[in-house]
Design goal:
The chain is built from ten helices and nine strands. It is an alpha/beta fold. It has two domains: 167 residues, P-loop containing nucleotide triphosphate hydrolases (Rossmann fold), CATH 3.40.50.300; 113 residues, K homology (KH) domain (GMP Synthetase, Chain A, domain 3, 2-Layer Sandwich), CATH 3.30.300.20. The protein binds guanosine-5'-triphosphate. Monomer.
Amino acid sequence: MTQTHAGFVALIGEPNAGKSTLLNQMVGAKVSIVTHKVQTTRARIRGIAMYGDAQIVFVDTPGIFRPRRRLDRSMVKAAWGGAADADVILLLIEAHRGLTDGAKAIIEQLREHSGKTPVALVINKIDRVKADRLLALSQQVNEIYEFKATFMISAEKGYGCEDLLDWLAAEVPESPWLYPEDQVADLPMRMIAAEITREKLTLRLHEEIPYQLTVETEKWEEKKDGSARVDQIVYVARPGHKGIVLGKGGETIKAVGQAARAELAEFMGRPVHLFLQVKVRENWLDEAERYNEMGLDFKDGDA
Ligand SMILES: Nc1nc2c(ncn2[C@@H]2O[C@H](COP(=O)(O)OP(=O)(O)OP(=O)(O)O)[C@@H](O)[C@H]2O)c(=O)[nH]1
């Protein structure tokens, strides 16, 4: 019998570096929400890729930045927590932005958090720059940290992702598999469903509103005909946001519901009936229960 390999790979980087896109590319199924807006990933999301004899469990983490609010602090704590528990850490930076101050700050903190864990540098979004810039960038970043390897990829287009997988498969320890072979994510279905709806809302709303809302799956009912009825609540932090989320004549929430239902049904491979309700809950950003629902630790947000 050949020896199997399995382990956790943490994806860290600034907001918008492409961590969720890479996780989805590696796993081949959409498990993490991706938008062009920063701070889309709130909790730690795991996606599982099978590659030869290896099972690689990717841990997507919230983007790391200088946190100011409780939710931000909880997210950054979760990100470093993900890195501390991993067998391999991948630091993502964006090819076209180069070595930003934010990336430098993360590399500084890596020294504290990584311990003996190998760290690879992943230069993402190479489809956005000319090839000759990449070598110089790679040298520049490698001068300030001892990366075990460097990869140049496009998470979106898949360039370089196979090489990265190859390397990771050899790098994770010899171990029995950690999850059943056909599992792609370890988030409970009700949380995935809430994330899908939150993604659709984020895509349709502006700026502060997505940050100040959260989605919870309140009820999940299996029907005899094989379909599922899913009831979700969208909590908004301000009375004024409710009308915006609903849209004129309920148009926005209807479009969100339709898009979320279609994606959830595709993910589950069976029909879904999705019911959304919007509620104002001015203090949800200060309620421990809301953080637990997102997979975050409320206390991590203590100043
Ligand atoms: N051109 C290009 N765009 C990419 C690539 N990878 C990701 N993106 C885009 O970059 C944006 C951010 O991607 P995400 O995967 O959400 O980034 P993230 O690091 O998970 O972001 P947070 O959740 O905010 O921490 C999205 O609009 C992606 O489509 C890439 O290889 N090339």
